[in-house]
Specification:
By secondary structure, this protein is α/β, with parallel strands linked by helices. The chain has one domain. The protein contains 12 helices and 23 strands.
């Protein structure tokens, strides 16, 4: 249960004011804004080189892009991909720069663009909760600000393009090394076209108490967004990074193909939380992986609420002895939505441990697919895994599929996997409605109770936002059922 302390009632009122309509109406219709220039057309060597030239990249990054392009052209589309038959990558705008310089204060952001973030309550959240905030609109970072304390502790927090030029050796050591672009076609596409994202380096023995957030917004139809986030936590350090995503309503669709790479050195701890709230115009791919060295910890929280189609599988490689990971995923598939999500854990070191909890809610004809991979290598003595996958189906038109894949090559491993699929209980609804709740309110309450286990560790502001957008989804679909 999320406890309420002084000041939280005021925050709840602010959230209620901020989210006053259905989830599709949070940002409303896309508004016109001034654009600087765009790059579109068939993906080619010339197009990729043009993006690199605009960003004034070093030669090594341009070569990386071109190698990724060659891989993209060679690789077939993954056979398990469904629901993107209308996606024509060559017809997209691959790079779109708004008429906005990098801002350090909210007043410097163009009014039409700033309005989106104000509707989401980000200025207030930054002031109350965050140690740093980066905003990306379309293909470029338009706002980047952090507290002086980060600089005093030697923390590097930069837009990715700036980090590539300012710290080339450091970035080069990790960029697409955690998640190689050769793994599938859309990872290669990302590496060829990437633009935006955040680089964070936390020095040894530095622990950042307040989270850092990056928020990504797609404001136009027929656009591709390809941000790259790279977080490196040096020995015995700690960071909590929050990723937010949203889009207004527009005709047509847009394509998101981002990447997140985490590297936790010895005894470091990285927590990465995502609240994905794309509008139903967005096709969403997100490539996420972390590597944990000896005694390191990587935590993932994936809250997948919006988008038309989503493919995302937070993954951890437990490379070092005594390393551990937790992966919590929440997916909501209501209406004409397909969510293909899950998790992957590769256990290489001795005495490693993993806890995986997946909660999925499907209704109004939605589809959810869970794919989980657990691989325990022969050398991974005494590995321990607890894996749980639960689906809550709200009606007879919705579907949930579970595909766990467990590969164990160590005789000393202890693996516990549990999967449950159930329907909304009529007795639960009857009891709640007899206490004065409407059917929609009763269903929303049951769902929030079902998800509580994975929401409890989020900062209050973000747990409240996630609770609210889930409730609004039920309002949009009339309670479901």
């Amino acid at each position: 249960m999320i406890s309420e302390h002084s000041g939280e009632k005021e925050q709840k009122l602010q959230l209620k004011k901020t989210f006053s309509g259905g989830i599709e109406e949070i940002l409303g219709l896309a508004t016109k804004y001034e654009k600087s220039f765009e790059i579109k057309g068939k993906i080619s060597r010339e197009l990729v080189e043009e993006i690199s030239r605009i960003k004034k990249e070093p030669e090594w990054m341009k070569r990386l892009r071109l190698r990724a392009l060659e891989m993209y052209e060679k690789l077939p589309s993954p056979k398990w991909i469904r629901g993107i038959e209308d996606l024509d990558v060559d017809s997209l705008i691959h790079y779109l720069k708004p008429e906005a310089s990098m801002a350090r204060s909210w007043d410097e952001i163009p009014k039409q663009i700033r309005a989106y973030y104000e509707k989401l309550g980000l200025p207030e959240i930054e002031q109350r909760v965050l140690s740093g905030l980066s905003l990306q609109f379309e293909s470029e970072t338009i706002y980047h600000n952090y507290k002086k304390l980060l600089e005093e502790k030697g923390v590097i927090m930069l837009p990715m393009e700036e980090a590539v030029n300012k710290y080339p050796d450091l970035v080069k050591s990790y960029f697409t090394r955690v998640f190689p672009f050769s793994e599938h076609k859309y990872a290669a596409l990302h590496a060829a076209l990437w633009s935006g994202g955040v680089f964070v380096y936390v020095p040894k023995n530095v622990k950042i108490k307040q989270p850092i957030e990056a928020f990504f917004l797609i404001g136009s139809a027929m656009e591709g967004q390809f941000e790259h986030t790279l977080i490196v936590a040096d020995e015995n350090s700690y960071i909590h990074f929050i990723e937010g995503c949203a889009a207004p309503i527009y005709k047509g669709y847009s394509f998101h193909d981002g990447m997140v790479e985490l590297y936790a050195h010895r005894s470091a701890h990285i927590k990465f939380s995502t609240i994905q709230n794309w509008s139903s115009n967005v096709i969403n791919f997100n490539n996420k992986r972390g590597i944990a060295e000896e005694n390191a910890v990587i935590e993932w929280f994936e809250g997948s609420i919006g988008s038309r189609v989503t493919y995302v599988y937070p993954s951890t490689i437990l490379k070092g002895n005594n390393s551990r990971t937790t992966i919590y995923t929440v997916t909501l598939s209501l209406g004409n939505k397909l969510k293909d999500t899950g998790s992957k854990v590769y256990m290489l070191g001795r005495n490693t441990s993993a806890k995986i909890v997946n909660k999925s809610v499907v209704g109004d004809g939605g589809i959810n697919v869970y794919r989980g991979l657990i691989r325990v290598n022969k050398e991974a003595d005494k590995a321990v895994v607890s894996s749980s996958c639960e689906n809550l189906i709200l009606d007879n038109r919705s579907k949930a599929y579970t595909y766990p894949h467990i590969q164990v090559f160590s005789n000393s491993a202890v693996i516990n996997h549990e999967a449950k699929t159930g329907k909304l209980g009529e007795n639960q609804l009857f009891y709640l409605m007899s206490r004065g709740l409407t059917e929609g309110e009763a269903k929303s309450l049951v769902v929030l109770g079902f998800l509580e286990e994975v929401l409890v560790d989020l900062p209050f502001e973000y747990a409240s936002v996630l609770n609210k957008v889930i409730q609004l989804e039920f309002e949009k679909y009339g309670g479901i059922g």
